[in-house]
Amino acid sequence: MVGGPQTHRLSNGGLIDRSAPLSFRFDGKTYVGFQGDTLASALVANGVKLVGRSFKYHRPRGILTAGSEEPNALVELRSGARREPNTKATTAELYEGLEVASQNRWPSLRHDFMAVNQLFAPIFVAGFYYKTFMWPAKFWEAIYEPAIRRAAGLGRAAGVADPDHYDKAWAHCDVLIAGSGPAGLAAALAAGRSGARIILCEEDFALGGRLLADGGTIDGRPAAEWISRTLAELGSMPDVRIMTRTTLFGVYDGGTYGAIERVNDHLPSPPEHQVRQRLWRIVAKRCVVAAGSIERPIVFAGNDTPGVMMASAMRTYVTRYAATPGKRIALFTNNEDGWRTVEAALGAGLQVAAVIDARPDVSPAHRSLASKSGFTVLHGSVSSVEGGKDGVRKIAVLLTGGARAEVEADGLAVSGGWNPAVGLTSYHRGRPKWRDDIAAFVPDGAPPGMVAVGAANGAFGLGACLREGFEAGAAAASDAGRNGNAGAAPVAEDEAFSLTPLWRVAGKGKAFVDQQHDITASDVELAQREGFESVEHLKRYTTLGMATDQGKTSNIAGLAIMAAVSGKSIPETGTTIYRPPYVPIAIGAFAGHHRDEAFHATRLTPSHHWAAEQGAVFVDTGLWKRAQWYPRAGEKDWLESVTREVKSVRGGVGFCDVSTLGKIDVHGADAGAFLDRVYINTFSNLAVGKARYGLMLREDGLVYDDGTTSRLAEDHYFLTTTTAKAGPVMQHLEFCRQVLFPELDVQLTSVSDQWAQFSIAGPKTRDVLKEIVDPAEDLSNEGFPFMGARKVALRGGIRARLFRISFSGEMAFEISVPARYGEALVRNLMQAGKQFGVTPYGTEALGVMRVEKGHVAGPELNGTTTASDLGLGKMMSTKKDFIGRVMAGREALIAPDRQVVVGIKPTDKVRRLRSGAHIIPKGQTPGPDNDQGYVTSVCFSPTLDQWIGLGLVERGRERIGEIVRAHDPLRGEEYDVELCNPVFYDPDGGRQRG
Amino acid sequence: MRIVCPFCGERELGEFTYLGDAKPARPAADAGEDAVFDYVYLRDNVAGAMSEHWYHSGGCRAWLKVTRNTLTHEISAVEPAAGAGAAKVGA
Ligand SMILES: [Zn+2]
Questions:
Q1: Considering only A110-119, A196-205, A350-359, which range has the smallest mean pLDDT?
Q2: Would you call B1 and A283 a contact, using CB atoms and an 8 Å cutoff?
Q3: Is pLDDT at A2 greater than 50 in this prediction?
Q4: Phi, psi for residue A883 in degrees, rounded to 5
Q5: Cβ of residue A749 closer than 8 Å to a chain B Cβ
Q6: A894-919 pLDDT, tens per residue?
Q7: pLDDT digits (tens, 9 = 90+) for A843-858
Q8: Cβ neighbours of residue A787 closer than 8 Å, sequence gap 6 or more
Q9: Where does the Aminomethyltransferase C-terminal domain start and stop, copy by copy (chain A) (predicted)?
Q10: SS3 A17
């Protein structure tokens, strides 16, 4: 076997599989553990005490706990793209080949150069960020911050994309249970027997909670037997789902909970097609929180020495993992529960050096255990621990009465009592209440539908946990409408729990409150002296409890010390607000599959696959992919392709997929009246078979959207929106219909995805269309005049909608066919149009032609412009009410000096005009005072053979012909431009009517 | 948060789009600029039960009037807008 013997592993006992050895590497050295180990228990079994270096002072740190509250034993797991920093060794499951590196040390864990930070400790005191920020900024940026960034910190991110997949899923149940300790299992048993649908989440990979380490007797039998009997019974129920490796981390509104399932973190890499983690959103009628409690440290000098461990953690390593944190240990406790660690240690054959008990009395049973086992009981407190990276050597004790004693030991178990895990119950801004008898905060109510039971509710006895859990499980099921017979509750004795509160022992040397953030007791005192007495201030000033462990072992101690120095009680001092998540959650889990090409949905136009065959270049417009241009062999750049496409349309015929426009069918007797209220112009008087351009305002008077709407029948209009506003306009129109004008007989149907729509433009449009449309249809200027709109039959019988509308300014039609025929139509157009030189064009050419025609689009419909700004003020009807009418008349919106749409062209014909350039009067210095607007849209106009654009310019329409300056500081350009008529091409519109 | 759509049943927040205060009523055409200004811009900052417009955008597209406690997010009532669902012709 590689890696040598497990020097600190017991030969018997524990929930590990000695027949399944697992080798792993820690800082390059190979060790062996067993199936069933966590990384922490395997390190303990190998006698490894030094696991990491602390955040600020680089002090040697070991393993403090055996659970997700761990502040110290943070490591980097795995390597390369799967390197994961700041992972708790106490919750990481061991697997064959696991690679682990310690963090925040240089050059090595044992010889950390940065440990000199301890010498500069005075500059790292509470509030040091705030204090040093007051230094000259240059000094901070150049020297101080880089130095701190090198010295302080945690693990290193992988620096490359995560290769694994994450999933998101929903689940629904009657009763959600957090925790599988005695209370949680009892709740599941009662709720399950009542017939409830249950989900039980357990963050550990094994079920049983504290029973796994502490055992006990339930229904007269060993706890382990009860666990397996209970699991068998739950397994036989149809609607019980037990999720291990799953932490309930958040509570949201309406009985929605967040849980993270670590599906494959316990494997080197997820099996093929499987995810690493899954983020669950669970909707539950009731939730029983049986999340247990967290043992709390006592703050004394040297309490961060490797080998100082929570008493419950030490016995967990001994009993559950058969790993011994020391050969000769001591216990420092202020309560009865700590003594169980002594019993466990003795049971495993360890030496107990002494028990230091801060309480005035120790029970006779414990006294006789001490004399029988040959250790002393010292009344008093640990004042300091001597030791270092190799662990604890000596413990200094201050005896009640003032005398001093010393204890030689290589491990110190500490128990300061237990804090119920009140996180989940407090996530709706609940404040827990103080209970004097256990000197701890317990839940004071909970979010709707939730109840805390067992240790999470301050009931620490095994009997009480079972009782409370069972009752709550039955009640939760009943509340959810499940009233089956819950049967008898499991029964157990309640252990004694007597505690004398003790938070801190005064002494020389650093005494840590928050070990992960290196916050000492004197930092808390300093914060109080400097006026940061409120717990919320204490937290932010010292950063106490703000590390990745969220202060699970430190918050209460910190506020207890604050209470003591400020002369208040602990409940008066109060707790900070509890916020989810309960444990750190990988961003990848929140993202789930929504990354890379699946970041959002992708919408493809009906002609997409055909366009891809042609080699089209696509552009993302919202969710859509649209053909931007169709390059041809030999074309040197996009401009050459686009210019060719424009010339082909203007001189012949081309077509473009415009299916991305929003399309809405408006039906009903009042359809016209409805449109009159939502558009500034009138539609009720539009003749059947005609189309009209319409403009909508928002209720505040600014332009919302535009588009062409056609009347296909007396009670049927077909409305189009811009691509960008397809969804919002539908929502807006539904609001108008359902909320504002419910009396109108009108129905709206979104048909954006139902119709494929193409613009066919150019003087030869009719020639091409005649090949497509049934010969019986009259496409002549008389039979189908400009702005005509009607249903037509195509050759072969397909029904289409044909609109004689033009965005390009050419003679043009738009044709709609059911979306499933879209691709066939394109292929037919290409074939039928070949003899006329038909040319597909993309959004760039579309844009060029619209700028040449002075049509406004997104850059001008930008949410700050009025109808009049766009040159469309005359469209506003004065004979009817419509959305935005009144507000559009406000003083500022009709002011004569508004910036309005105007044409812009450089006086130097070869100069390129750029969007975003600001307009300044000639001879004036650029700046906010002289800024008169900016260039909104530009294009190279093949027709005019120069760059042209549209802009929003103050009083622009009155200044046609004026030469002004275009000022473009981003590109370092300034040049003369002429303000001109925005309709550069065919201003009287003869071509589109022809 | 979960909203019980009168047409679709209980659905998750992500299916809905929030608009805001449902109390202001659109003034009559001749109400004057001040009334419209109030309608467009003035809102009560309610701490407690508030009537709000929500749109079931990911479902039936009904506009809903939801009574929500802004302090607790508890929803006490959901009713469809007057014109939600099929048009009530002749009703
Ligand atoms: Zn609905």
A1: A110-119
A2: no
A3: no
A4: -60, 125
A5: no
A6: 999 999 999 999 999 999 999 999 99
A7: 999 999 999 999 999 9
A8: A690, A691, A692, A804, A805
A9: 901-986
A10: strand
Can you identify the CATH homologous superfamily of domain A662-750? Aminomethyltransferase beta-barrel domains (3.30.70.1400)
**C-alpha–C-alpha distance, residues A178 and A196, integer Å:** 15
d(CA A116, CA A292) in angstroms, rounded, equals 39
> Which tokens hold the place of B19?
């608009």
Q: What is the pLDDT of residues A223-234, one digit of tens each?
A: 999 999 999 999
List, for residues A973-986, the tens digit of each pLDDT value: 999 999 999 999 99
What is the Rg, in whole angstroms, of the alpha carbon atoms belonging to chain B?
15
Query: pLDDT tens digit string along A424-454?
Result: 999 998 999 999 999 999 999 999 999 999 9
Q: For A760-770, what is the mean pLDDT? A: 97
Cα–Cα distance for residue pair A729/A704, rounded to 1 Å:
8
What is the domain class of A896-993 according to CATH? mainly beta
pLDDT-based confidence at A150, cuts 50/70/90? low
Backbone φ and ψ for A341, nearest 5 degrees, come out as -70, -35
Closest CA to A283 of B56, B13, B22, B39: B13
CA distance B16 to chain A (A): 11
Among A125-134, A163-172, A404-413, B71-80, name the one with the lowest average pLDDT. A125-134
> Which residues of chain A have a CB within 8 Å of the CB of B26?
699, 740
Question: Residue A100: beta bridge partners?
Answer: A26, A77
How far is C-alpha A610 from the geometric centre of its chain's CA atoms?
Answer: 38
Q: What is the reported pLDDT for B90?
A: 46
Residue A114 token pair: 């940065």
* A300-415 shares its CATH topology with A603-659+755-849: no
Task: Please judge whether A253 and B39 are an interchain contact, meaning their C-beta atoms are less than 8 angstroms apart.
Answer: no
CATH 3.10.20.440 for domain A1-158: yes
Answer CATH for A603-659+755-849 from 3.40.720.10, 2.160.10.10, 3.30.1360.120, 3.90.1200.10? 3.30.1360.120
| pLDDT score recorded for residue A153 | 67
Mind listing the domains of chain B with CATH numbers?
A: 2-24+34-80 (3.30.2270.10)
A224 at interface of B, judged by CB pairs closer than 8 A: no
Length of chain A in terms of residues written: 994
Q: B53 and A735: CB-CB below 8 Å?
A: yes
Domain A502-566, architecture per CATH: Orthogonal Bundle (1.10)
Whole-number mean pLDDT of chain A? Answer: 95
> Is the predicted pLDDT of residue A1 greater than 50, yes or no?
no
Which residue among A283, A737, A887 sits closest to B36, beta carbon to beta carbon? A887
Longest CA pairwise span in chain A (Å): 116
Please state which architecture CATH assigns to domain A300-415: 3-Layer(bba) Sandwich (3.50)
**Vertex A963 angle, CA A991 and A908, to 5°:** 75
From the number of C-beta atoms within 10 Å of its C-beta (0-12, 13-18, 19+), residue A888 rates as buried
Tell me the whole-structure pTM to 2 decimals. 0.92
Interface residue of A665, A878, A886 to substitute, partner B, most B CBs within 10 Å: A886
Cα A755 → chain centroid: 36
Q: Whose structure tokens read 């909670």?
A: A209
Domain segments of chain A as ranges: 1-158, 166-293+421-479, 300-415, 502-566, 603-659+755-849, 662-750, 896-993
d(C-alpha A468, C-alpha A457), whole Å: 9
- Judged by a CB distance cut-off of 8 A, whether residue A403 touches chain B is no
List CB contacts of A149: < 8 A, sequence separation 6 or more: none
- Tell me, what's the ipTM? 0.97
Q: What CATH code would you report for A166-293+421-479?
A: 3.50.50.60
DSSP 8-state assignment for residue A608: H
Residue A201's pLDDT is 98
Residue-level pLDDT at A129:
65
